[in-house]
Input
Amino acid sequence: MRKDLVDNNQKRNQQTASLTDSYQPHREMVMRLIEATFKDLSGPDSAELSSLVLLGAGNCLDVELPRLSELFQTIHLVDVDAEAISTASEASGVPGEKLRLHGPADIAEPLLSLTSRDFEPTEDNIEHCTFVLQQLASENGLADIPESDVVVSLCVFSQMLDSLRHVVAEDSPAFTNAVRSLRVGHLRRMLNMLRPGGVAIFVTDIVSSDTAPELKAATDDTIAATVKKLINERNFFSGTNPALVLEDLNMLSRLPGGPDTVHTIDPWLWQMADRTFAVYGLRIQKKPPIQEADEAQV
Ligand SMILES: C[S@@+](CC[C@H](N)C(=O)[O-])C[C@H]1O[C@@H](n2cnc3c(N)ncnc32)[C@H](O)[C@@H]1O
Output
């Protein structure tokens, strides 16, 4: 992996490590989504589920590990920043055997090992460029994580897009395809980490007060309308438009291990020190096991 791209992520985590209080409403929202999914999957006796995967776990400020450890037997923390997940797991007080740390790990491999040469728009590079796009879009997940009940993507997608912009410029002919490949790959990898019938929760920041100062004045009641307006004005992070994510999920739903149902979760606000982000979520349930589907048709 490229040291500069890994360092960028580590630096951001170091800068946000002290923002526990500022993250509180965002954390509560993410926890609500995971706890509601736990209830859906665990049935009437609320039996503990086998495992949860947190992608982009970082400092774990957007989850409460002790609360989650009461719901899942094992929690996998995945991040390119090994130090952040290690520090967060120690600070959580959750028994070590419940937490499995996967870091440094590039969940969009080979993203963090790419260079601008990989996307050079020259005739003799087309074949290589196509190969790289296929790799980004592949479902090659992390080999050492067993199929899990729930996988959550914790605002890691926008960080992956940021790394991509260090490798391929926005005005390059390859940029749009690279963004789409990265997004499809991320969705496929989440689905691939799930057991049949499991649930992926895709949480992503879509725009910040850097380009949309009106977010600072937004409230829980106005944020959905504000985000809708910003999307119409094309003021959002390239690649995070929910309409395009839904299009990709629709395409993936034709595959055997694809989504069965997808629900959009309305945007909410995430305060990160003096910056405000709008965040939205998608709850994606993987198709159930084949035999269950067959029985249902009888
Ligand atoms: C915005 S932070 C999410 C907040 C984090 N859960 C927390 O509470 O601190 C995104 C996280 O994704 C990680 N990340 C970014 N790109 C990654 C990649 N390609 N593979 C693995 N982790 C990545 C960063 O290191 C960071 O910890």
